[in-house]
UniProtKB/TrEMBL annotation:
The keyword Transferase applies. This is Octaprenyl diphosphate synthase. Belongs to the FPP/GGPP synthase family. GO terms for molecular function: all-trans-octaprenyl-diphosphate synthase activity; metal ion binding. Supplies octaprenyl diphosphate, the precursor for the side chain of the isoprenoid quinones ubiquinone and menaquinone. GO terms for biological process: isoprenoid biosynthetic process.
Length: 320
């Protein structure tokens, strides 16, 4: 990731500085929680995509691209704050979640602050097509989160619904980060290709994330193995077993999802390995990563493109 960031190093640093500046509030608790979650680390992948997309099509990033990257990160961070409350999560990126430290109500309200600050920045940019894209994106994310919530504990969830969820709650923000840069650069002929790249990369990213919930190292992922299972989320590894496992294996998975329980986690870890569920998920991730690469085929050959293609490889091999 360090080599990839090098392409937009000064711009990436400018985004971080702008984010810190925009966390200012007359309410101390807003700043405390905002700084806590923003400074927790993370890959800053979504704002990085916005900057790389600008470099790819225009060979430069202006101040509005910096602002767009910050907007993307604020929206993403707001969703994390809200997700941790909904999921009753206590650990993210290897340390206590904001809701574990301050409680649910402050976390939700600071998430709202970050959403509203993102749209204040968009008003400053003053580009209506961009505002339309980000308005639609945040609405889609909210729908995806609600869809995921309604499917929690529902063992009959199928693959199509699963992909509807991850497109909406994860991949659409990847897509908006990339396409938004095309809008700002007035390179509308590149907008769809960049949107497709971001969408497919985001799907691959989430598929790997769901694999890591069953074989990741908590020291690297920053969250506990089996968290999704304990929340009753029917992710693709479990859906695969329900479609292809033995009757006994299906019964174990179905019960765990319905009960929202990780009590039989060791057995389930063995099942998703033995049935080939994780291998199937990897194959799906590879297919979407390849689609992301194909979306950039007609794009200019430059260092930004090289690193965006490299991100497709990193998404598949990541451990956190």
């Amino acid at each position: 990731m360090q080599n990839i960031r090098r392409v937009v190093d000064s711009e990436f640093n400018a985004v971080n500085d702008f984010i810190i500046d925009q966390l200012h509030s007359r309410v101390a608790l807003v700043e405390n929680i905002g700084h806590y979650i923003i400074e927790a680390g993370g890959k800053r992948l979504r704002p990085l995509l916005a900057l790389l997309s600008a470099q790819l099509i225009d060979d430069r990033c202006d101040q509005n691209h910096i602002k767009l990257a910050a907007v993307i990160e604020f929206i993403h961070t707001a969703t994390l704050l809200h997700d941790d409350v909904v999921d009753i999560s206590e650990l993210r990126r290897g340390r206590p979640t904001a809701n574990a430290n301050w409680g649910n109500a402050p976390s939700v309200l600071v998430g709202d602050f970050l959403y509203s600050r993102a749209f204040q920045i968009l008003v400053e940019i003053g580009n209506m097509p961009l505002m339309g894209l980000l308005s639609d994106t945040t609405n889609t994310i909210a729908e995806g989160e609600v869809l995921q919530l309604t499917r929690a504990g529902q063992a009959e969830t199928d693959e199509q619904t699963y992909f509807d969820v991850i497109r909406s709650k994860t991949a659409v923000l990847f897509a908006a980060a990339c396409a938004g840069s095309a809008i700002l650069s007035n390179k509308l002929d590149a907008q769809q290709a960049l949107y497709d790249y971001g969408m497919n990369l985001g799907i691959a990213f989430q598929l790997v994330d769901d694999i890591l919930d069953y074989e990741g190292d908590p020291a690297e992922t920053g969250k506990n193995i089996g968290d999704d299972l304990a929340e009753g989320k029917p992710t693709l590894p479990l859906i695969y077993v329900l479609q292809n496992g033995s009757e006994e294996e299906k019964a174990i998975i179905r019960q765990a999802i319905s009960d929202k329980s990780a009590e039989r986690l060791p057995e389930i870890l063995d099942i998703v390995q033995r049935t080939g569920a994780l291998d199937y998920c990897r194959q799906q991730a590879e297919q979407y990563s390849a689609l992301a690469e194909q979306a950039l085929a007609a794009m200019p050959e430059n260092e930004a493109k090289t690193q965006m293609l490299r991100l497709c490889e990193i998404a598949l091999g990541r451990k956190n």
